[in-house]
Amino acid sequence: MNSDTLTKPEKIRCDACPVMCYVAEGKAGACDRYANENGRIIRCDPLTILDRQLEKGGEIRPFLKSDWDGKMLEGGEVFVSAIGSGTTYPDYKPAPFIVSRQVGGVDFVTVVTEAIFSYCGVKIKIDTDRHLGHEGAIVRASGEVIGHVMTGEYGSQMLSLGGVDHLTGGSKAEGRITCDSLLKLCNKQAVELEIDEGSKVVVQAGKAPIVDGVTETRMRVGCGSATIGMFASQWRGLVDEVVVIDDHITGVVSEHQAGKVLGWEDTGIKIKGRRSTPGRYFQVAEPGLGWGGTNIEDPSVILGPWNAKKGAKPGLRLMMVSTTGEQHAYYVLDDDLVPQLQDMPDSLLPSVQLIEENCEPSLCSVLFMCGAGGSLRSGATKNPVLLTRSVQALKTSVTCGGADVYVWPGGGITFMVDVLKLPDDSFGYVPTPAIVAPLEFTVSLDDYLALGGHQDAIRAIGDIVEHGGEYGANARLTAFGDKGD
Amino acid sequence: MLPDERRLHLHHGPIDLIVEAFGPERLQALALAEARFQTVLSELVEELKVLRQPCEPDRKFHGAIARRMQLGVEYFLPRFITPMAAVAGAVADEILEAMGAGEGIDRIYVNNGGDTAIYLSPGHSMKAAIAAPFRAEIAIQSTDHSRGVATSGWRGRSQSLGIADTVSVVASNCASADAAATMIANAVNLPGHTNISRTMALEISPDSDLGEQLATVDVGDLTDTDVETALNNGELLAQTCVHEGAIDGAMLILKNSIRQVGTMDLIHTNTGELAIA
């Protein structure tokens, strides 16, 4: 029965959407998402407050005033994040939360909003030796173009997904699939990507990539040449020749500088490939999903005829290994100087295992990148460019869901953040399509007022936790996201 | 797109749509739905004031959805009804039409909070679950006349002047089904019964199109006779609607009693201890 709450005639107007419902006390508007509680419009999703004291992965729990001993709010242990704060687009109104607190005796102000980004995307680093696709190749999700392959980095492949051209510059379906893929990636969910003339790869922040159905396990220890340099001394005496197969730089110990220094003797080996410097070969095979990021399944195919005049002789022992140590093979030259596959002697296994041990786990990293240069700045201050300048002068720090960001030099407020550092499900979307991300500006009170801040809208952090904001009385306390291992 | 990669969720203010299309051209159809959705709420808000007023015959609205609402409710004149009684169904119909079903599309449903508009290409059918205290499904074939399903009741999101737990209606379009479900649910009633609590609609929702009329807020114990009487009242209107071709069928549920009118054939009914009237 609701009759007791109906005796109060309080009704207020909700401005969260164009319907502008009048909402009676204790009731929700037509959407069931915003409600009137004690004469204020509240949003039903709770505002998130990040508690530095909670362990990583700590459970989200509802904040109850009666549980609060006040301690959590001292010494900067609690930070009001923008997740669930609501937004004030168009931004002529002050941001939903402008919070003051003391850190080290100085008053700080944090301006908190959920910002709508049309200019945004993700940069992805996939730890793999395997060839995923050529630089510049198109990356698709559900058949739509959502980005491209960037550079190959040391043991990793970079992708760029999203950006304004894919979100708003292409077809409706392209924008929608792009937005959907970005949202999933930012919220730490898996997305299957297909690279034109390349691989299918399942990407999820903090998880191993799955390339063409195979879960990647290890990142290579180094290029083939580097692997030779690291392990040449351990192979000495156990084997006569070692080839480390790598799509980029294949190494041959007897010819390599590292082998020469240790006194390795010539073996008369011939590698099919383009010789760069002694013991270092480019393009021994095509890129692929085989040994060391090549298309090689049988490593002996890269070997040419052995030259007896340069040291080849029957009984010569050869080890071939990939840059991760995952693949390895052992050969002995027969009387005709043809390598014959044999079981790897136990004495060599530790060195192969050492390569594996030195390889780090393969992971996907997802960095959200966006430009906060537009009208949202006026939610923070009345003179938007002053906020930009203050950020560039390092007086105002920018965080995204409580996580530190890297702000690009140059104009505007363009930043990148590791999505693993945010709590789960911090990102949202609007059908525009665009991504909604939490954003906080923190600045000393003096500087905030100097740059034309909304002084009247400043509230104490204890007040936020106790009373919530314009759209929310319920806060949740949660641990900061993964700070990275 | 929802995590299942099949259904599209469109939300703006009080409108929540779940849309799914089947067939090779499904993504194109979903993209058209999303494009059409962008301005739906603002179009409605423009004429909202008049849409909340009692329906008048032949009133002309600018917006396509508002016109669908007017068409959906006009049948019930001169009874009291506002175009808002068909808003959910009209939005579903409009989105469905915008999806341009044709070659490459087998089936579509546009579900607006339980009020659903359906497209079926020849030879296809759609099953729909009907709100009921037991498992109830209906199957609509491409050869059937019905392309809209809607449900109303005092427990639902919109206010009801009646006491039906649910009234589900199938009709040629969703706006008509929506309006009829609302009106039949209002008619399932026992005026003046002391175990029924009612409150002025505008006290619950100050913008309510029902104004000072008494909306049901609680239904207490009712005798078997009470239940039968209330259902009789609703069934009378439902039968009239079917007779005059305004709807194809209806199912009325109050407490543990159920009535079926017209062509609303349930499949899969686990009746349990229900009394089927």
Structure commentary:
The complex is a heterodimer of chains A (485) and B (277). With 485 residues, chain A is of the alpha+beta class. Chain A folds into 4 domains: 3-42, no CATH class; 50-118 and 366-478, no CATH class; 123-215, no CATH class; 224-357, no CATH class. Chain A is 16% helix and 32% strand. Chain A has 10 helices and 33 strands. In chain A, the strands form 6 sheets. Chain A has an 11-stranded antiparallel sheet. In chain A, a hairpin with a 2-residue loop joins strand 3 and strand 4. Chain A is elongated and about 100 Å long. The model of chain A is unreliable at 1-9, 46-77, 88-93 and 470-477 (pLDDT under 50). With 277 residues, chain B is α+β, with helices and mostly antiparallel strands. Chain B has a single domain, classed as T-fold, CATH 3.10.520. Chain B has 8 helices and 14 strands. Chain B has a 9-stranded mixed sheet. Chain B has a 3-stranded antiparallel sheet with strand order 5-6-13, with no helix packed on it. A two-stranded antiparallel sheet of chain B has the order 9-10. In chain B, a hairpin with a 2-residue loop joins strand 1 (8-12) and strand 2 (15-22). The A-B interface holds A 1-3, 6, 9, 11, 16-24, 27, 29-32, 142-143, 171-173, 176-177, 180, 189, 431 and B 1, 3, 5, 10, 12-14, 27-28, 31, 34-35, 37-38, 41-42, 45, 48, 157, 197, 199, 203-207, 217-218.
